[in-house]
Design brief:
elongated, alpha+beta, three-stranded antiparallel sheet
Length: 183
Protein backbone atom coordinates (compact mmCIF):
# COMPACT_ATOMS: atom_id res chain seq x y z
CA UNK A 1 0.00 0.00 0.00
CA UNK A 2 1.35 3.39 -0.92
CA UNK A 3 0.22 6.87 0.00
CA UNK A 4 0.05 9.97 -2.20
CA UNK A 5 0.24 13.40 -0.61
CA UNK A 6 -1.22 16.11 -2.86
CA UNK A 7 -1.23 19.88 -2.63
CA UNK A 8 -4.56 21.42 -3.62
CA UNK A 9 -4.70 25.04 -4.70
CA UNK A 10 -7.52 27.42 -5.53
CA UNK A 11 -7.50 28.16 -9.27
CA UNK A 12 -10.30 30.75 -9.10
CA UNK A 13 -7.92 33.47 -7.93
CA UNK A 14 -5.78 33.24 -11.06
CA UNK A 15 -8.60 32.78 -13.58
CA UNK A 16 -8.28 36.40 -14.73
CA UNK A 17 -4.60 35.94 -15.61
CA UNK A 18 -5.06 32.57 -17.27
CA UNK A 19 -6.21 33.63 -20.75
CA UNK A 20 -4.45 36.95 -21.07
CA UNK A 21 -0.96 37.94 -22.20
CA UNK A 22 0.42 36.84 -18.81
CA UNK A 23 -0.40 33.15 -19.33
CA UNK A 24 3.24 32.22 -20.02
CA UNK A 25 4.42 33.98 -16.87
CA UNK A 26 1.67 32.27 -14.89
CA UNK A 27 2.70 28.81 -16.14
CA UNK A 28 6.37 29.41 -15.32
CA UNK A 29 5.44 30.69 -11.87
CA UNK A 30 3.22 27.69 -11.19
CA UNK A 31 5.94 25.26 -12.26
CA UNK A 32 8.55 26.95 -10.05
CA UNK A 33 6.20 27.13 -7.07
CA UNK A 34 5.24 23.49 -7.56
CA UNK A 35 8.87 22.38 -7.73
CA UNK A 36 9.65 24.23 -4.50
CA UNK A 37 6.58 22.75 -2.80
CA UNK A 38 7.59 19.24 -3.88
CA UNK A 39 11.11 19.68 -2.56
CA UNK A 40 9.79 20.94 0.78
CA UNK A 41 7.19 18.16 1.01
CA UNK A 42 9.87 15.51 0.35
CA UNK A 43 12.05 17.03 3.04
CA UNK A 44 9.19 17.21 5.55
CA UNK A 45 8.09 13.63 4.81
CA UNK A 46 11.65 12.39 5.34
CA UNK A 47 11.90 14.25 8.66
CA UNK A 48 8.56 12.87 9.84
CA UNK A 49 9.50 9.29 8.90
CA UNK A 50 12.90 9.58 10.60
CA UNK A 51 11.29 11.01 13.74
CA UNK A 52 9.36 7.73 14.17
CA UNK A 53 11.62 5.13 12.52
CA UNK A 54 15.37 4.55 12.85
CA UNK A 55 15.79 3.92 9.12
CA UNK A 56 18.77 4.89 6.97
CA UNK A 57 18.14 7.98 4.86
CA UNK A 58 18.80 6.27 1.53
CA UNK A 59 15.86 3.91 2.04
CA UNK A 60 13.59 6.90 2.66
CA UNK A 61 14.90 8.57 -0.50
CA UNK A 62 14.08 5.42 -2.47
CA UNK A 63 10.58 5.26 -0.98
CA UNK A 64 9.66 8.86 -1.87
CA UNK A 65 8.88 9.64 -5.51
CA UNK A 66 7.85 13.02 -6.83
CA UNK A 67 5.07 13.60 -9.37
CA UNK A 68 5.55 16.85 -11.23
CA UNK A 69 3.01 18.71 -13.35
CA UNK A 70 2.83 17.54 -16.96
CA UNK A 71 1.56 19.40 -19.99
CA UNK A 72 0.71 23.03 -20.45
CA UNK A 73 -2.85 23.04 -19.19
CA UNK A 74 -3.02 25.05 -15.98
CA UNK A 75 -6.25 23.39 -14.85
CA UNK A 76 -4.63 19.93 -14.81
CA UNK A 77 -1.38 20.82 -13.05
CA UNK A 78 -0.84 18.60 -10.04
CA UNK A 79 2.14 17.92 -7.80
CA UNK A 80 2.36 14.99 -5.41
CA UNK A 81 4.78 13.00 -3.28
CA UNK A 82 4.16 9.26 -3.47
CA UNK A 83 5.36 7.13 -0.57
CA UNK A 84 6.06 3.50 -1.42
CA UNK A 85 4.41 0.77 0.61
CA UNK A 86 7.30 -1.65 0.22
CA UNK A 87 8.89 -3.01 3.38
CA UNK A 88 12.54 -2.28 4.12
CA UNK A 89 15.19 -4.92 4.96
CA UNK A 90 16.06 -5.10 8.66
CA UNK A 91 19.69 -4.38 7.84
CA UNK A 92 18.58 -0.77 7.11
CA UNK A 93 17.87 -0.27 10.82
CA UNK A 94 20.42 -0.18 13.65
CA UNK A 95 21.06 -3.84 14.42
CA UNK A 96 23.36 -5.84 16.65
CA UNK A 97 24.21 -9.54 16.55
CA UNK A 98 23.82 -11.22 19.95
CA UNK A 99 24.10 -14.81 21.15
CA UNK A 100 20.34 -15.26 21.03
CA UNK A 101 19.74 -13.57 17.66
CA UNK A 102 19.71 -10.08 16.24
CA UNK A 103 18.58 -7.03 18.19
CA UNK A 104 17.01 -4.38 15.94
CA UNK A 105 15.70 -0.88 16.66
CA UNK A 106 12.97 -0.27 14.07
CA UNK A 107 10.90 2.27 16.01
CA UNK A 108 12.74 4.97 17.91
CA UNK A 109 13.48 4.02 21.49
CA UNK A 110 12.38 0.38 21.20
CA UNK A 111 14.77 -2.51 20.52
CA UNK A 112 13.41 -5.90 19.53
CA UNK A 113 15.23 -9.23 19.70
CA UNK A 114 14.58 -11.60 16.79
CA UNK A 115 15.52 -14.98 18.22
CA UNK A 116 17.43 -17.35 15.94
CA UNK A 117 18.24 -14.74 13.32
CA UNK A 118 21.72 -13.79 12.16
CA UNK A 119 23.54 -11.12 10.14
CA UNK A 120 25.33 -12.41 7.05
CA UNK A 121 26.93 -11.17 3.85
CA UNK A 122 26.26 -12.92 0.56
CA UNK A 123 28.92 -13.62 -2.06
CA UNK A 124 27.53 -10.71 -4.05
CA UNK A 125 28.30 -8.36 -1.13
CA UNK A 126 24.66 -7.96 -0.08
CA UNK A 127 24.27 -7.81 3.69
CA UNK A 128 21.11 -8.76 5.47
CA UNK A 129 19.42 -10.15 8.55
CA UNK A 130 18.38 -13.74 7.87
CA UNK A 131 16.52 -16.56 9.59
CA UNK A 132 16.36 -20.26 8.77
CA UNK A 133 12.97 -21.73 7.83
CA UNK A 134 13.46 -24.97 9.73
CA UNK A 135 16.18 -27.04 11.36
CA UNK A 136 18.04 -27.53 8.08
CA UNK A 137 20.85 -25.27 6.98
CA UNK A 138 18.88 -24.06 3.95
CA UNK A 139 16.59 -22.35 2.99
CA UNK A 140 17.07 -19.02 4.70
CA UNK A 141 14.85 -15.94 4.37
CA UNK A 142 15.85 -12.30 4.58
CA UNK A 143 13.84 -10.50 7.24
CA UNK A 144 12.17 -7.20 6.49
CA UNK A 145 10.97 -4.45 8.79
CA UNK A 146 8.18 -1.92 8.61
CA UNK A 147 7.44 0.36 5.67
CA UNK A 148 8.31 4.07 5.53
CA UNK A 149 4.66 4.78 4.73
CA UNK A 150 3.66 3.45 8.17
CA UNK A 151 5.15 6.53 9.84
CA UNK A 152 2.99 8.82 7.68
CA UNK A 153 -0.21 6.89 8.41
CA UNK A 154 -0.30 8.22 11.97
CA UNK A 155 -2.88 10.92 12.59
CA UNK A 156 -1.81 14.33 11.32
CA UNK A 157 1.49 13.30 9.71
CA UNK A 158 0.38 13.34 6.06
CA UNK A 159 -1.65 16.49 6.67
CA UNK A 160 1.42 18.22 8.10
CA UNK A 161 3.45 17.29 5.01
CA UNK A 162 0.70 18.62 2.75
CA UNK A 163 0.41 21.80 4.84
CA UNK A 164 4.15 22.43 4.49
CA UNK A 165 3.84 21.96 0.72
CA UNK A 166 0.84 24.28 0.52
CA UNK A 167 2.56 27.01 2.51
CA UNK A 168 5.71 26.69 0.43
CA UNK A 169 3.67 26.80 -2.80
CA UNK A 170 1.84 29.95 -1.72
CA UNK A 171 4.93 31.86 -0.59
CA UNK A 172 6.93 30.92 -3.70
CA UNK A 173 4.02 31.81 -5.98
CA UNK A 174 3.57 35.27 -4.47
CA UNK A 175 7.33 35.90 -4.56
CA UNK A 176 7.99 34.67 -8.11
CA UNK A 177 4.89 35.97 -9.97
CA UNK A 178 5.97 39.64 -10.05
CA UNK A 179 9.43 38.56 -11.26
CA UNK A 180 7.99 36.43 -14.06
CA UNK A 181 5.52 39.13 -15.12
CA UNK A 182 8.40 41.61 -15.35
CA UNK A 183 10.27 39.47 -17.91
Amino acid sequence: MSVAIDVKWDRSQIAALQNGPLEGALKRTLRKAGATALRDMKSEAGKRIRSRKRIKARYITRALTLRRAKGGDIANMEWAVDVSGESVPLVAYPHRQTKKGVSVEVNRGKRTLIAGSFVAAMKSGHQGVFKRRGKARLPIDELRGSRPVDALLHKGEAAAVAARGGASFATTFTRVLPLEVGK
